[in-house]
């Protein structure tokens, strides 16, 4: 279980650090080709989502690595599940049913990370 958590958490952390960092640092024009939804969402909200993604990535890794507040890893994974539920809701409201495949995959991995982190405590 320990190795499985680190594999799942590491992959999720890499993805969310990258995706969240892009949302925080790039302009709306640079994000638009990859994320068409940024036109319908205010940029402060896009930046907030990016910040939550980066914090979620850190929350998956830092508490277990340091041994400090380890239950925060479970909270981070659950938070990432909630972000994906919001993403799926946004895509479905825009009629982008084909776009939710990645959301479903990330939601599943985050749920698995939450379960593995719970099993570790």
List keywords for this structure.
121 residues; mainly alpha; 5 helices; globular
Order of helices and strands: HHHHH
Structural class: mainly alpha
Our count of helices gives 5
Largest sheet geometry: none
Which term fits the overall shape?
globular
Distance N terminus to C terminus? 11 Å
Are there runs of 5+ residues with pLDDT below 50, and where? none
Number of domains: 1
Rounded Rg: 15 Å
Helical residue percent band: over 70%
Oligomer: single chain
| Percentage of residues in strands | under 5%
Name the average pLDDT: 94
Count of beta strands: 0
Summary of the model, kept short:
This protein has 121 residues and is mostly helical. The protein has one domain. The protein has 5 helices and no strands.
What does this structure look like?
This protein is mainly alpha-helical and 121 residues long. The protein has one domain (2-120). The protein has helices at 2-25, 28-31, 43-66, 72-93, 100-120. The longest helix is centred in the first third of the chain and has 24 residues, at 2-25. The model has no long low-confidence stretch (mean pLDDT 94).
């Amino acid at each position: 279980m320990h190795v499985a958590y680190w594999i799942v958490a590491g992959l999720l952390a890499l993805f969310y650090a990258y995706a969240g960092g892009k949302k925080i640092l790039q302009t709306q024009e640079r994000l638009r080709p990859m994320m068409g939804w940024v036109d319908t969402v205010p940029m402060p909200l896009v930046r907030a989502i990016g910040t939550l993604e980066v914090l979620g990535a850190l929350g998956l890794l830092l508490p277990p690595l340091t041994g400090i507040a380890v239950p925060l890893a479970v909270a981070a994974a659950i938070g990432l599940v909630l972000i994906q539920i919001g993403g799926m809701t946004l895509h479905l409201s825009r009629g982008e049913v084909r776009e939710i495949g990645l959301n479903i995959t990330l939601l599943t991995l985050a749920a698995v990370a939450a379960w593995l982190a719970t099993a570790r405590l």
